[in-house]
Amino acid sequence: MSSFNLTSATSLPPATRALTALLIGLSSLLFVLRLSLQQRDLKHIFGASNDENLAFPWLVLVPGSALWYPWTIITNSFVETNFIEFIVSLSTLPLAGRYLERVWGQLEFLKFVAVVLVASNVIAIAVNIIESYVLGDKALFMYGMSYHGLMALQVAFLVAFTQLIPEHQVQLFGGLAKIRVKSLPMLYVTVSNIACIAGYQSPYILIQFGWLVSWFYLRFIKLNEGGEFRGDRSETFAFASWFPPFLQKYVAKLSSFLFGLAVRFRLLRPWTDLESGSGGAGAYANVPGGARAEAERRRAMALKALDQRMATSTPKPTIPGTAGPATSPTSVSGPSAGTGDISLGESSKE
User: What whole-number distance in Å separates Cα of residue 53 and Cα of residue 76?
Assistant: First the structure.
């Protein structure tokens, strides 16, 4: 896994560099503030609660205090409360952000980050409000939990990579195990499910919300290259594709039914309004050539967009005595190489 150092920080695109600096700054601030706390103070304020982050509702997201500190709906995500989570976020944010910002552009990347973080935290607040009324424990669900960290954004990055490079492989444990990129989001969601069942709703439930929000945004809202239409209507990115094969046909029927309802109540626009030549409302068009062909098409589009952005952002050196620019010694490999292997946290196509 690549290490994050000063050299790599200066090579990051502007938005990714700013978000990484925000992560370091806010996480460090929480660490310094916690040094001033004593255990007896926490017991006096929170009773039996051992979540010392609740002492800083203006820094982390406490559902009952969000109305008074609305900025925490987004800034809480850049506050990691333990060293391991901080190292994981400090490794994944620059690497994933660098790739996606160069493929999508700075504005689209920031929009994606903002939508995922804000929507995930708002859903978390709504869930806690419902739990406080249904279960009758307002002290716990409104003031006894704190949400923080980049877990929602991390799974959102995996969803984005599933859309762009689904057939790439990630090497785990020095190459002892390999897993396709498209399998990583549900693996992370499974971790979230286990943690929530074990009683760790905060903050692990944010993984589930980040997965759903990022998929919905990329599926229905995000403008495609050229701004011709919104969303990704391919079968390989349908909601049913996240589930095991024996469940996919049932999930597909349910998702098509819900999509039809959303269109009927004008919550979503039908596919025929977004892309000419598509089928009826709620229909998911088949991709010519099957899922593998669609994966290769996306991979080629991502590489082309990345190559164009890198070419326009990096000045080409000129050779003395010549009128034109010199050919760059490095280039982004084309899609003809087939399905590649990438190390954990690194893209072989960058």
Answer: 11
Helices within the chain (DSSP H only): 6-10, 14-34, 39-46, 72-75, 83-104, 106-134, 138-143, 151-164, 184-197, 201-216, 245-264, 271-274, 290-313
Distance from the Cα of residue 334 to its chain's centroid: 25
Non-local CB neighbours of 305 within 8 Å, separated by 6+ positions: 103, 104, 225
For the question of whether the overall pTM of this predicted structure is more than 0.85, the answer is no
Pairing state of beta strands 169-172 and 341-343?
A: parallel
Question: Cβ(122)–Cβ(324) under 8 Å?
Answer: no
Most distant CA atoms of the chain, gap in Å: 79
Q: And the tokens for 102?
A: 């160069």
Task: Give the phi and the psi of residue 318 in degrees, each rounded to 5.
Answer: -105, 145
Residues facing residue 342 across a β-bridge: 170
Q: What is the pLDDT of residue 35?
A: 87
63: preceding bond cis by omega (within 30 degrees): no
Contact 320, 314 (CB under 8 A): no
Q: The tokens of 223 are what?
A: 């403008």
Cβ–Cβ < 8 Å for 235, 291: yes
Predicted confidence (pLDDT) per residue in 80-107, tens digit:
999 999 999 999 999 999 999 999 999 9
Edge-to-edge order in the sheet of strand 341-343: 177-180, 169-172, 341-343
Token look-up 């890198």 returns: 310
